[in-house]
Structure formats: C-alpha cells, structure tokens
C-alpha cells in the first residue's frame, strides 16, 4: 500500500531534477533569477547557480534614471536606480560563480567605477563585453577592468576622445583580442591609435557613426589582418578647401575605397540616404545617433552576426 502511494504521489517542484530545473530556468531573465527563483528553496538556488545560466549576463534592458548636469560627469543618477543596479550585480555575481563569458550593458546605463571594478573582479574570464556610457567610468576604472579581462576577445564601446590609454591596455593584456565595435564618431586620431595598438584586429564595426574619409583610408591601409569591416548607415564626410574647410558628405564610395576594401572577406555598407531609415537617422543626427529617440533595441543591431545582440 505504501509503495502504491509513493508511486502515485505527485512530485513537488523542489524535488525536480536539477537538470530539468536548469532547462526551465533558461527561459527566465536575470531579473527573475535573482529576485525570485533563487530564493524559493535550496534546490532552486542550486539550479540557479548552474554555469549554463550565466554564460551570458544580459543587462541590456536596464537603464539608469538620471538627469543631465552642467559639470562632470554631466549626469546625476537617481539613488534608487543606482542601488537597484548594485543589487542586481551583487546577486548575479553570487549566483554566477565567475562563469560569465559575455557581459552586456545598456548603452544608456551610467555605471560607476566601483560597480565596474566589482563586476570585473568577479567575472575575470569574460571574452565579450558591451560597455555602457563612459560618463561615470574613469580612466583608472576601465584600465583596471581590462587588466583583469585577459581573455577578452570582443569589445563594444562608445566612442572615446582619448583612445590611446584604453587601446594600449587592451594590447598589453588581451592577447586574443580580435573584434571591436565603436558607437560614435570615428576620427583620424582614433584610426591612428587603432593601427598602432591593435594592428592585428580582424573585425571592426563603425556602423551608424560619423566617419572621416581620411580615417577610413587609414584603417584600410594600416590594418593588414582586418577581415570584416562594417560601415553600414554611417555618415561619411571629408573636408575640402582652405580655412575654413568645407564639410562634404560622401554619398557614394569612390573607386579608391572600393579597391582597398576588395581584399576584405566581408565589407558591409549601406548609403541609401533616400530610402534607408537608419541612414536618414544617422545623417539627421550628424553622425552621432541619439539612440534614445528611436525604437528600444535599435542600438543592439549589427550587420556583423558576432556583434549583433
């Protein structure tokens, strides 16, 4: 009788095999894992710590609540918003056990130095990082993180006015680095720094950006290992005449550029300013796309599959 009862007894949720729980939990977001599921019982918490759930830590839906201010860092992040981010990071780091390989932040998230350092120290094996806005991240903070991320292969980052310190740290510490996406203006200074620091880079995306023609020519000549280049929807300009120079929008890629890109395995471009909505937006924003004005998630798009989110 007892045996018959045991065979008919419905198993409780906490008694499910860990492998089954992990498969179910893969359907939930990081917010659901950290705020609810991990606190139900010991069995569920054990399942929430499975490395497969933390291979990618996607915080791309988490934005800061902030106001703009006239002095550095030019934004003030509301306290509750900052505390919510810190809480998510601490819970995620506790559950992930250092098994995260891809870390994705929202472009409009204002991460602090302390939050970045805390995360970097607990995710030393990262191979891909999508960085948020620079405003609250200082030189010391990002350089410390890069020194920890020795296995880093891919970085998506906002454009930066002084790139040498960052790219130099990547060159010194990340020997397998091969893929870079820049969201923002691409100037000659950035091109020269890239050539000097990361001459063996294989993939570069500067889509939806303001690109100086001279900068484009420099990377085509100076990055011999480059295989994939994406300049889709970018605002390509050159300057002509004497002072004051006149800015001219390049509407069509000339023969010289096309000859230089012929060696690449993949050259991605779109300059259909009359028919392409994204090209029109980039031109309207003068090559510095205000992503917050458009559909949520547009900033995640990339024609390079390995960079698309």
TrEMBL record:
GO biological process: defense response to Gram-negative bacterium
Domain F-box: 18-59
UniProt xrefs under InterPro entries: F-box-like_dom_sf (IPR036047), F-box_dom (IPR001810), LRR_dom_sf (IPR032675)
Gene Ontology molecular functions: SCF ubiquitin ligase complex binding
Record SUPFAM superfamilies: F-box domain, RNI-like
Signal peptide: none
Stored PANTHER family: F-BOX DOMAIN CONTAINING PROTEIN, EXPRESSED
Name of this chain's protein: F-box family protein
Organism for this UniProt entry: Arabidopsis lyrata subsp. lyrata (Lyre-leaved rock-cress)
């Amino acid at each position: 009788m007892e045996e018959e009862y045991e065979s008919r007894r419905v198993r409780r949720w906490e008694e499910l095999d860990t492998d089954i729980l992990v498969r179910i939990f893969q359907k939930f977001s990081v917010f659901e894992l950290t705020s609810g599921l991990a606190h139900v019982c010991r069995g569920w918490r054990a399942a929430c710590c499975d490395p497969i759930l933390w291979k990618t830590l996607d915080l791309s839906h988490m934005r800061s609540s902030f106001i703009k201010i006239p002095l550095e860092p030019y934004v003030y992040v509301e306290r509750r918003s900052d505390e919510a981010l810190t809480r998510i990071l601490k819970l995620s780091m506790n559950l992930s056990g250092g098994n995260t390989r891809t870390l994705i932040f929202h472009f409009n998230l204002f991460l602090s130095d302390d939050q970045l350092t805390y995360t970097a120290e607990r995710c030393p094996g990262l191979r891909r990082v999508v960085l948020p806005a620079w405003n609250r991240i200082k030189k010391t903070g990002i350089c410390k993180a890069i020194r920890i991320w020795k296995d880093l292969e891919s970085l998506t980052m906002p454009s930066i006015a002084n790139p040498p310190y960052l790219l130099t740290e990547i060159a010194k510490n990340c020997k397998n680095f091969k893929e870079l996406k820049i969201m923002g203006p691409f100037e000659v200074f950035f091109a020269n720094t890239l050539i000097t620091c990361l001459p063996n880079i294989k993939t570069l995306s500067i889509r939806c950006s303001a690109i100086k023609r001279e900068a484009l020519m420099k990377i085509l000549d100076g990055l011999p290992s480059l295989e994939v280049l994406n300049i889709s929807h970018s605002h390509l300009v050159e300057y002509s005449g004497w002072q004051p120079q006149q800015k001219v929008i390049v509407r069509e890629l000339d023969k010289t550029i096309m000859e230089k890109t012929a060696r690449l395995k993949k050259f991605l471009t779109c300059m259909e300013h009359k028919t392409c909505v994204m090209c029109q937006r980039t031109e309207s924003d003068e090559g510095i796309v205000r992503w917050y004005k458009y559909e949520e998630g547009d900033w995640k798009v990339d024609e390079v599959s390995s960079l698309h989110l």
